[in-house]
Each structure stands twice: as C-alpha cells, then as structure tokens.
Description:
Elements: H1 25-38, E1 46-52, E2 58-64, E3 67-69, E4 72-78, H2 82-89, E5 92-99, E6 104-114, H3 117-124, H4 129-137, H5 147-160, E7 172-186, E8 194-201, E9 203-209
Antiparallel strand pairs: 1-2, 1-5, 3-4, 4-7, 5-6, 6-7, 7-8, 8-9
Amino acid sequence: MKDLSDIRRDYNQGGLRSKDLPDSPFKLFEKWMDQARAAEITDPTAMVLATVDQNGQPFQRVVLLKRFDESGLVFFTNTGSRKSQHIKDNAKVNVIFPWNDLERQIAITGVAEPLSTTEVMAYFATRPKDSQIGAWASQQSSKISARGVLEGKFLELKQKFAKGEVPLPSFWGGYCIKPDSFEFWQGGDRRLHDRFLYELNGDWQVQRLAP
C-alpha cells in the first residue's frame, strides 16, 4: 500500500468569524464566488454533484454552475444521463465547491427541480455551436465501443447542421437546486478550521460546527 500520510500543509490564509456572517447564505456564497473568480483559480464554477441510485449507491461527478440567485443554483445536462435518472427517483442532492487554493469549500444540500423548456432553450442558444452539436452527438452515460463512434457521430451532425441553427435536443435540460443547507469551511491554523452551517427552518439559522 502506498503511504501518503506525510503529505500535509498548513492552512493560514485567514479565518471566518460569526460576526462577519450575513443573514442569508446566498450573500456569503456570492462573496466567496466573486473572490474565487478574482483569484483566477481553475474552474471556480465547477461543483461536485452527488446523487443516489435506487440501491442507495452514491455517485459523484463534476458539473458547472451556470447561474444562481436566492431561488437556487442552476446547471444543465442530458436528461437521459445517469445523474438525471437518479434525480428523477430521488431529487435530494448534494454539491460541493472545492476551492482548495483558497483553503475553502462550500457544501450545499437541496432538492433538484427540472427547469422549464423555455429556460433550457434560452441557455442552449448561448452555447458555442460545437457544444450544441456535442449535446446531440452524445447519449450521455450510454456504453460505446470506441471514441471513434462518438467522433463520427459528431462529424455527421456537424455536416447536417452546417447551414442552420442547431435545435434544442428533446433529451437536453437543466435543474435548479433549491438549497436547504449551506456549510462554509475555511481552513485554519493548527487544523482549527472554521465551519458554519446554515439550515433553512422557516428562515436561515446558522451555527458554528467543530472542525
């Protein structure tokens, strides 16, 4: 077994104090997102999405946050994908933003609700044309024999849509995660990290958690 126990580092970029917490977790989320973008970390909008299948087996994958406000966090995907099938059976999800360079992470639990076709179409129209064609070419999560099959399908569709707009696939959509909890984690000196949990109970209640 490979021993990795000697890999460690100090966390000293600063703390998070209760006096600095806003009433709404969305305000702190927006502040931290703005700071992550300003720091030019890689893929600040990337979030690890966890779902659970019918047997209780958890699955995780990275998706990209496309917009957010007080109503929730929005991402888009193939509605025939494994994640979408899980959400259909159990809409409770968890996402985490692992901003390691800033010694921060945000974990969010909530319920994923499908977006309307109008909302999906409006976003799909803003995607680069190759990305639109890529959505058509991939039956996400299905088994394929080789990469060449995928590339061949993409080239076939690129020729088909060469002279016109790419229509919205019937199997492509999106979700809005309606949060019921946010946990903000800030690395701290001597492993005394700062953790604050916001939970929705009528209004937002916040508590400090032991690291």
